[in-house]
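Lesson 9: reading folded outputs for more than one chain in a single document. The general rule is that every protein is listed as its sequence immediately followed by its C-alpha cells, and records are never interleaved. Here is the first one.
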Amino acid sequence: ILADGTSNTVDVTLPDATTITGRIYVIKAIDITFAVKVLTTSSQTIDGGANHTFTSANEAIQVQSDGSDWQIIVKA
C-alpha cells in the first residue's frame, strides 16, 4: 500500500487482525508533508502501540496479524 501525504493527512486502516491470522501488509509512506498514519480496528495494536506514524518519506513497514494484533516484521 503506497500512502502519499503530499496534500492531506493519510490514514491507512488495517482490517480486523482476529479474522486474518498470518496476513501480511507492506505500507510505504511516499511523502509525509502531511501525516501518514497506520491505524487499527477494534482497539488492536501495532507492536503494542495504538497506531504507527511514519517519520520520514519513503519509510516502509511490513506488518503481520498474530491473530489478535499487528506486529511489525520489517521497518525500513
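And here is the second record, again sequence then C-alpha cells.
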Amino acid sequence: ECMTDTSIESSKHFSKSELACKCCGEVQMDVDFMDRLELLRMAYDRPMKVSSAYRCPNHNAMVSKTGHAGPHTTGRAIDIAVMGREVYDLLKMATVEGFTGIGIKQNGPHDNRFIHLDDLPPIKGRPRPWVWSY
C-alpha cells in the first residue's frame, strides 16, 4: 500500500517534499515502511536529513546501478544524510527497528555521506538482512 498525499502530510517527522522523487515530484512511499521509519526517528530522537527517498523508475535508472527497479522505486527505501558517531547510533537503532537492507557510504566529501535503509524481504539473489558499503 502506498501513501496518499494526505497520509504523507500526516507523517510527524518527514515532509512530502523531502520524500518526493527529485525528477518528477511523485511520492509513493509504502505506509508500513513509513511507520517503521517514524519508529526509528523517535528512537533516534534527532532530526534525520533525507537525501533520497522515493525515486520513479526513470530517476532511479539515472542515479543507481539498480536500474529501473531498485529499492527506492518500491517506496520502501530512504537515504539519510549522516556521518560520524550518528551513523553508529542510527545503525544500531535501524537493526532493532527491523530494517533489512543497510548501505553505508562514509567516504568522500562529508556532505555526500549517508546511510541507506530499506525493509525489503529476502528474495532469490537478494538475501536479507544485508549490510553493504558504497
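What the second record shows: The first helix runs from residue 5 to 9.
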